[in-house]
Amino acid sequence: xxKIVAIDRGNNHLLDEIELETRAGIKSNSVQxxxxxxxxxxxxxxxxxxxxxxxxxxxxxxxNKDKFTxxxxxxxxxxxxxxxxxxxxxxxxxxxDQYRPVIFKEPKVPKxxxxxxxxxxxxxxxxxxxRHFCIDSFSKAISKVFNIKNKHEDEDxxxxxxxxxxxxxxxxxxxxxxxxTMANGKNPFEVMPAGSHLxxxxxxxxxxxxxEGVIILEEYHTRDEAFRELHVEIxxxxxxxxxxxxxxxxxxxxxxxxxxxxxTRDYADRxxxxxxxxxxxxVGDTFSFIESGLEREYAREILDQNIAFIKPITGHEYETxxxxxxxxxxxxxxxxxPDYIEYRDEGVCIVEVCGYPDDEKYMRALEVxxxxxxxxxENGKIAKYLRCTKH
Length: 391
Ligand SMILES: [Zn+2]
What we know:
This protein is α+β, with helices and mostly antiparallel strands and 391 residues long. The protein is built from seven helices and 17 strands. A hairpin with a 2-residue loop joins β12 (269-283) and β13. The structure holds zinc ion (ZN).
């Protein structure tokens, strides 16, 4: 996951760092606290996307002096995936902090050869911004369905935390779309280009197994709150793009996936314009998002045991779920995004699933996280920290 790193202005030493997946994350408490401390220490912040030298600027939000935002500095380069890329404003209104409808449009084909590289960059920025839109939407739906499922009339009684069903999740995702505002003031359904359709649900074939240009989607339908099978054309190029958008530590995970797609409808023919997939593990009528093969095994275990949990995909979920497991002021700040936050009989447990034990950089980062979680455990802020390694 992309990171923002705080460094000492004098000697360039690393002071602190925080993960930041999408621009929505800047508003989260954890990132705001991080920025506050950077300001206080008079440190610099850099983006980790290219080589940890792309300096960024912290600015006050114009309408709220207590909140910070992050701006790029024009002479530093960022990767096309990065939320601070110079062309990002084409696809994301940076003043309003809202996505632009253009992320759902079919890519332009360059007329002249010399326009090619500009259009290529523009298209890459749009498709990565579409990815950010999908991640934000999946993430908001996790908090939303969790809060709906665990809201009780009798708030004085402590109820055990319950897991939601797959169908309840996609119903919540529908509400997330209806409640989101794009840069032109409309919701994602309202800004679909003519003849295009916003589709979401589950797809079961692994991306590397799809041949003959057809993907089978199990599309969620709001009217009857059910999934319906649908065959949609997908080009090899679009399939490759989808694989690239999904890549985790260089790997494309096997299906099933939760998906958000845009397809065009032309009589009977449907053709994928945009497709974002996030690997999931399903058990019975519920599921978990997963980021590695080992997480798939681990998710299966806790779903089988009927343990309620949050699988954070942006890190924003933890702050936005309401639950009585901690008294409000006792909920500890998490500096990192754990793999799982579980609500077990003994209390709240944090789990890291050690998915890439051979990757040195990954393991070093894991050790830093573990130090933080273990201190929360020692101080009684969480019941337990657990590391899951290969079975
Ligand atoms: Zn960057």
